[in-house]
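Section 4.2 – Deliverable D4.2 (structural model, holo form)

The reporting period included a commitment to supply a predicted holo structure for the target in complex with 4'-deoxy-4'-aminopyridoxal-5'-phosphate. Inputs used:
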Amino acid sequence: MTITPQPGIMEIELYQSGASKIEGVTEVVKLSSNENPHGPSKRALDAFRQASGELHLYPSTDHAELREAIGEVQGMDPARITCGVGSDEIISFLCYAFAGPGDEVLYTEHGFSMYRISALAAGATPVVAPETERRTDVDKLLAAVTEHTKLVFIANPNNPTGTMIDEAEVARLADGLPEGCLLVLDGAYAEFVDGFDAGKAVIDARDNVFMTRTFSKIYGLGGLRIGYGYGPQEIIDTLNRVRGPFNLSVPALKAAEMAMRDVGYTEWCRVENARMRDWMTAQLDAMGVAVDPSEANFVLARFEDQAKAESVDAHLKTKGLIVRLVAGYGLPSCLRITVGTEAACKRVVAAIKEVL
Ligand code: PMP
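Output (structure tokens):
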């Protein structure tokens, strides 16, 4: 008997996550997955610990308390929020709900790998539009739209480039899409941008734009897997049909609620990230390493070729520093370096200096 998977499934490349170990090295600093080096808010940790008394109970199915907290802090109507196991799960809900065989899912050249994985898993066809100088290009995206395009994903700021486009460009993209096509703004790194609404104003003025957000980055809860989506009521109502009823655990819900409410800590993380990111960018620049101005919690360092990027990566490993080779994103001569603590950033800069 042959058990045959659905078309598209075997085209999915297995996701390569950032390494967390180096053979023979005990003291490693992981700067390969854009995690918050300072961890989550203390209030979120306390809430997580308290939740251990409720582990025999099923979690809430509607995530009302978490949606209430997100709504208050982000100025969103809680009814127009849905929560998932990381924003990865929201991305896959979108593909399952809105794209199937014969439909196209469009994203940018160096776009996040889950767009392709989720499109293929849903039986849809992934389509890639070129960027310009590692930046989302609205004209090129619009030129790649066909009558089959159902979803368009852009991450703003983008991973792994760190670049972003402004609100007018996002609005132009939304307004250029045909009827029946949804624009998804992936705001995984939105909180790192000072005063940025992640596209909320664009969403609130339209019915064809949606956003995904995560607790894995600035909120420091990647290990708990929580994300959310915000957008038009009909889209939320549709996604809630695809969503498993108990998709988020009791500790995840409690910790995320407190992390969202601890706005002072989030702001501290934003300011500290910007300080070290801008310092690291200036240091790399002074060494002659090309870096695009990043708005996120990582920088993309560009070397002359793949061999150089690999040799810098190998040298960093000997120092216990794990960064990310992003050849899989079509950037073979680049290293993506997460902004770590001040000490970690100084170690990375010193180690790169040694090898150049
Ligand atoms: N979008 C982008 C652009 C990302 O970089 C990531 C994480 N690497 C995600 C979404 C997914 O994050 P999570 O599932 O942890 O929310």
